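Milestone M4 deliverable, item 7.
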Amino acid sequence: MSKPGPISAKPLSALLGDVFSDAYARQGFASRELVTRWAEIAGPEIAAHSEPMKIRWPRPIEGQPQEPATLVLRVEGPVALEIQHSSDVILQRVNRFFGWNAVGRLALRQAPLSRKTLRKSVRLPDPTEVATVAGTLSSIEDTDLRAALARLGASIKRN
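Output delivered:
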């Protein structure tokens, strides 16, 4: 009797990746990152009370430039007005995530959110370690970029 060969386990995400990709594509999402990283993109205050449902792309017209899409958000009833007032900020953050002017307007749907709990936020790096790394980045002029790189470097050192 021969010995069985080694078992190579595959992650569940690798096996179901195509299934989820098809489901997101039917809702207009090119990739699932907008949904899975919504808290990072929109910010924790907005993401606590909203979630993206789908993206509606307008039909292209020959000879005309492509119109931006409409992002449909599911929002909790009482906060819908607040999110409507923050729509410009949300559009800027979503388009910054995509890297181009993909979304031109928001459509809000008041309904209970499909998820009940948000993922725990990532533990922030030690401020002293961030300051140490930031000291080595003096050649970078942009302060926001320097701060982001300092946090990244401190997180990498921690792990």
